[in-house]
Amino acid sequence: MKKFLIVMLAAAVVFGLGAGTAADGHLEDGEYVGYSEADENGYVKAAVTLENGDIISVNLTEYTEKEEAKGEDYTWDDWHEAMEILPERFEEANSSDVDIVSGATGTSEKAMEAVEMARQKAEGVEQFDGTYLGTSAEDNGGWGVAWVTVEGESIVDVRLEEVTDGDEFKDEDYGWDHWHEAREEMPEWFVEADSPDVDTFTEATSSSQMWRESVENALEKAGLDTETLEE
Protein backbone atom coordinates (compact mmCIF):
# COMPACT_ATOMS: atom_id res chain seq x y z
CA MET A 1 0.00 0.00 0.00
CA LYS A 2 1.30 3.40 -0.93
CA LYS A 3 2.66 5.50 1.96
CA PHE A 4 2.80 9.24 2.05
CA LEU A 5 5.09 11.94 3.43
CA ILE A 6 3.86 14.52 5.93
CA VAL A 7 5.39 17.98 5.61
CA MET A 8 5.88 19.36 9.12
CA LEU A 9 7.82 22.22 10.66
CA ALA A 10 10.11 19.64 12.20
CA ALA A 11 10.67 17.19 9.38
CA ALA A 12 9.74 13.65 10.39
CA VAL A 13 8.64 10.45 8.71
CA VAL A 14 5.32 9.31 10.13
CA PHE A 15 3.01 6.35 9.67
CA GLY A 16 0.96 5.94 6.56
CA LEU A 17 -0.17 9.39 5.39
CA GLY A 18 1.07 12.49 3.72
CA ALA A 19 -0.02 16.04 4.46
CA GLY A 20 0.59 19.38 2.85
CA THR A 21 0.00 21.45 5.98
CA ALA A 22 2.48 21.85 8.83
CA ALA A 23 1.71 20.73 12.39
CA ASP A 24 3.29 21.66 15.73
CA GLY A 25 3.09 18.25 17.44
CA HIS A 26 0.51 19.32 20.03
CA LEU A 27 -2.66 17.21 20.13
CA GLU A 28 -5.81 19.25 20.67
CA ASP A 29 -8.53 17.35 22.54
CA GLY A 30 -11.76 16.57 20.72
CA GLU A 31 -13.23 14.16 18.18
CA TYR A 32 -11.58 13.87 14.78
CA VAL A 33 -12.52 11.89 11.69
CA GLY A 34 -9.79 10.32 9.58
CA TYR A 35 -9.88 8.38 6.31
CA SER A 36 -7.54 5.80 4.88
CA GLU A 37 -6.33 5.81 1.32
CA ALA A 38 -8.97 4.28 -0.95
CA ASP A 39 -8.29 1.41 -3.32
CA GLU A 40 -10.41 -0.90 -5.47
CA ASN A 41 -11.82 -2.43 -2.27
CA GLY A 42 -12.84 0.81 -0.56
CA TYR A 43 -11.53 2.54 2.57
CA VAL A 44 -11.82 2.82 6.35
CA LYS A 45 -13.12 5.79 8.34
CA ALA A 46 -12.05 6.33 11.96
CA ALA A 47 -13.77 8.60 14.48
CA VAL A 48 -11.13 9.20 17.17
CA THR A 49 -11.70 10.95 20.49
CA LEU A 50 -8.71 12.48 22.29
CA GLU A 51 -8.65 13.54 25.93
CA ASN A 52 -5.55 15.02 27.57
CA GLY A 53 -3.72 14.09 24.38
CA ASP A 54 -4.62 10.40 24.70
CA ILE A 55 -6.80 8.24 22.47
CA ILE A 56 -9.80 7.28 24.60
CA SER A 57 -12.20 6.09 21.90
CA VAL A 58 -12.00 4.80 18.32
CA ASN A 59 -14.98 3.99 16.13
CA LEU A 60 -14.17 2.26 12.83
CA THR A 61 -16.31 1.90 9.71
CA GLU A 62 -15.15 0.17 6.55
CA TYR A 63 -16.72 1.03 3.22
CA THR A 64 -16.78 -0.92 -0.03
CA GLU A 65 -15.67 0.45 -3.40
CA LYS A 66 -19.25 1.73 -3.80
CA GLU A 67 -19.08 3.46 -0.40
CA GLU A 68 -21.51 1.04 1.21
CA ALA A 69 -20.74 0.36 4.88
CA LYS A 70 -19.80 -3.21 5.74
CA GLY A 71 -21.98 -4.51 8.57
CA GLU A 72 -23.15 -7.53 10.49
CA ASP A 73 -24.03 -9.38 7.29
CA TYR A 74 -20.45 -9.18 5.97
CA THR A 75 -19.30 -12.78 5.64
CA TRP A 76 -15.59 -12.58 6.59
CA ASP A 77 -15.09 -13.68 10.21
CA ASP A 78 -11.57 -12.22 10.46
CA TRP A 79 -12.97 -8.84 9.45
CA HIS A 80 -15.47 -8.91 12.31
CA GLU A 81 -12.67 -9.83 14.70
CA ALA A 82 -10.54 -6.95 13.40
CA MET A 83 -13.33 -4.41 13.77
CA GLU A 84 -13.81 -5.53 17.39
CA ILE A 85 -10.14 -5.79 18.39
CA LEU A 86 -8.51 -2.88 16.58
CA PRO A 87 -10.25 -0.04 18.49
CA GLU A 88 -9.05 -1.58 21.77
CA ARG A 89 -5.50 -1.82 20.42
CA PHE A 90 -5.45 1.82 19.37
CA GLU A 91 -6.72 2.91 22.75
CA GLU A 92 -4.29 0.71 24.72
CA ALA A 93 -1.29 1.71 22.59
CA ASN A 94 -2.37 5.37 22.40
CA SER A 95 -1.03 5.19 18.87
CA SER A 96 -2.04 4.53 15.27
CA ASP A 97 0.73 1.92 14.99
CA VAL A 98 -0.62 -1.40 16.28
CA ASP A 99 -0.36 -5.08 15.37
CA ILE A 100 -2.24 -6.25 12.29
CA VAL A 101 -5.13 -8.64 12.90
CA SER A 102 -4.30 -11.93 11.18
CA GLY A 103 -6.58 -12.59 8.23
CA ALA A 104 -7.60 -8.93 7.96
CA THR A 105 -4.40 -7.25 6.81
CA GLY A 106 -5.99 -4.76 4.43
CA THR A 107 -8.58 -3.66 6.97
CA SER A 108 -5.91 -3.34 9.68
CA GLU A 109 -3.62 -1.21 7.52
CA LYS A 110 -6.45 1.05 6.42
CA ALA A 111 -7.65 1.42 10.02
CA MET A 112 -4.15 2.49 11.07
CA GLU A 113 -4.01 5.04 8.26
CA ALA A 114 -7.42 6.44 9.21
CA VAL A 115 -6.50 6.76 12.90
CA GLU A 116 -3.21 8.42 11.96
CA MET A 117 -5.05 11.00 9.84
CA ALA A 118 -7.34 11.75 12.78
CA ARG A 119 -4.31 12.21 15.07
CA GLN A 120 -2.66 14.51 12.54
CA LYS A 121 -5.83 16.59 12.38
CA ALA A 122 -5.55 16.96 16.16
CA GLU A 123 -2.05 18.34 15.56
CA GLY A 124 -3.43 20.95 13.18
CA VAL A 125 -2.83 19.27 9.82
CA GLU A 126 -5.58 20.27 7.40
CA GLN A 127 -4.69 18.83 3.99
CA PHE A 128 -3.62 15.28 3.14
CA ASP A 129 -2.04 13.86 0.01
CA GLY A 130 -3.29 10.49 -1.21
CA THR A 131 -6.12 8.77 -3.07
CA TYR A 132 -9.60 9.26 -1.64
CA LEU A 133 -12.97 7.86 -2.66
CA GLY A 134 -16.00 10.09 -3.04
CA THR A 135 -19.60 9.45 -4.03
CA SER A 136 -22.62 11.47 -5.08
CA ALA A 137 -26.19 11.43 -3.88
CA GLU A 138 -28.43 8.82 -5.50
CA ASP A 139 -30.13 9.63 -8.78
CA ASN A 140 -32.80 7.17 -9.97
CA GLY A 141 -31.31 4.50 -7.72
CA GLY A 142 -27.71 4.93 -8.89
CA TRP A 143 -24.80 7.14 -7.90
CA GLY A 144 -21.41 8.30 -9.05
CA VAL A 145 -18.08 7.14 -7.61
CA ALA A 146 -14.69 8.84 -7.97
CA TRP A 147 -11.18 7.93 -6.85
CA VAL A 148 -9.24 11.20 -6.67
CA THR A 149 -5.49 11.41 -6.10
CA VAL A 150 -4.23 14.64 -4.55
CA GLU A 151 -0.62 15.76 -4.32
CA GLY A 152 0.41 19.14 -2.94
CA GLU A 153 -3.14 20.52 -3.05
CA SER A 154 -3.49 19.55 -6.72
CA ILE A 155 -5.61 16.89 -8.42
CA VAL A 156 -3.24 14.57 -10.25
CA ASP A 157 -5.47 11.62 -11.14
CA VAL A 158 -9.18 10.73 -11.27
CA ARG A 159 -10.98 7.47 -11.92
CA LEU A 160 -14.75 7.45 -12.42
CA GLU A 161 -17.42 4.77 -12.05
CA GLU A 162 -21.21 4.77 -11.83
CA VAL A 163 -23.43 2.43 -9.84
CA THR A 164 -26.69 1.36 -11.48
CA ASP A 165 -30.01 0.91 -9.74
CA GLY A 166 -29.12 -2.79 -9.59
CA ASP A 167 -26.15 -2.00 -7.31
CA GLU A 168 -23.54 -2.87 -9.95
CA PHE A 169 -21.03 -0.72 -11.80
CA LYS A 170 -21.88 0.15 -15.37
CA ASP A 171 -19.39 -1.59 -17.67
CA GLU A 172 -18.37 -1.84 -21.32
CA ASP A 173 -21.74 -3.39 -22.15
CA TYR A 174 -23.64 -0.27 -21.13
CA GLY A 175 -25.36 0.91 -24.30
CA TRP A 176 -24.96 4.71 -24.18
CA ASP A 177 -21.90 5.88 -26.14
CA HIS A 178 -21.96 9.38 -24.65
CA TRP A 179 -21.66 7.88 -21.17
CA HIS A 180 -18.52 5.98 -22.17
CA GLU A 181 -17.06 9.13 -23.74
CA ALA A 182 -17.80 11.15 -20.61
CA ARG A 183 -16.25 8.55 -18.32
CA GLU A 184 -13.10 8.50 -20.47
CA GLU A 185 -12.70 12.27 -20.98
CA MET A 186 -13.90 13.85 -17.74
CA PRO A 187 -11.02 12.64 -15.53
CA GLU A 188 -8.66 14.77 -17.63
CA TRP A 189 -11.02 17.73 -17.25
CA PHE A 190 -10.87 17.49 -13.47
CA VAL A 191 -7.07 17.28 -13.53
CA GLU A 192 -6.68 20.19 -15.95
CA ALA A 193 -9.17 22.37 -14.06
CA ASP A 194 -7.73 21.25 -10.72
CA SER A 195 -11.30 21.47 -9.49
CA PRO A 196 -14.60 19.54 -9.41
CA ASP A 197 -16.22 22.48 -11.19
CA VAL A 198 -16.01 21.43 -14.84
CA ASP A 199 -18.41 21.55 -17.79
CA THR A 200 -21.27 19.11 -18.15
CA PHE A 201 -20.59 16.49 -20.81
CA THR A 202 -23.10 16.75 -23.66
CA GLU A 203 -25.67 13.92 -23.63
CA ALA A 204 -24.37 12.66 -20.27
CA THR A 205 -25.74 15.38 -18.01
CA SER A 206 -26.83 13.24 -15.08
CA SER A 207 -23.59 11.27 -14.96
CA SER A 208 -21.56 14.48 -15.26
CA GLN A 209 -23.33 16.02 -12.30
CA MET A 210 -22.87 12.91 -10.18
CA TRP A 211 -19.16 12.72 -11.01
CA ARG A 212 -18.60 16.37 -10.16
CA GLU A 213 -20.26 15.76 -6.81
CA SER A 214 -18.22 12.60 -6.29
CA VAL A 215 -14.93 14.39 -6.98
CA GLU A 216 -15.88 17.17 -4.58
CA ASN A 217 -16.73 14.60 -1.90
CA ALA A 218 -13.35 12.91 -2.34
CA LEU A 219 -11.57 16.26 -2.06
CA GLU A 220 -13.36 16.96 1.20
CA LYS A 221 -11.85 13.76 2.63
CA ALA A 222 -8.43 15.06 1.62
CA GLY A 223 -9.17 18.32 3.42
CA LEU A 224 -9.54 20.33 0.21
CA ASP A 225 -12.39 22.29 -1.29
CA THR A 226 -13.04 24.10 -4.55
CA GLU A 227 -11.87 27.45 -3.22
CA THR A 228 -8.57 25.96 -2.04
CA LEU A 229 -7.86 24.45 -5.44
CA GLU A 230 -8.83 27.55 -7.39
CA GLU A 231 -6.46 29.86 -5.47
From TrEMBL:
Extract the GO molecular function terms from the UniProt entry: FMN binding
Signal peptide boundaries: 1-22
Q: Which GO terms describe its cellular component?
A: membrane
Q: Where is each FMN-binding domain found?
A: 34-122, 141-222
Tell me the superkingdom of the source: Bacteria
UniProt keyword annotations, A-Z = Signal
Q: What is this protein called?
A: FMN-binding domain-containing protein
What organism is listed for this UniProt entry? Halarsenatibacter silvermanii
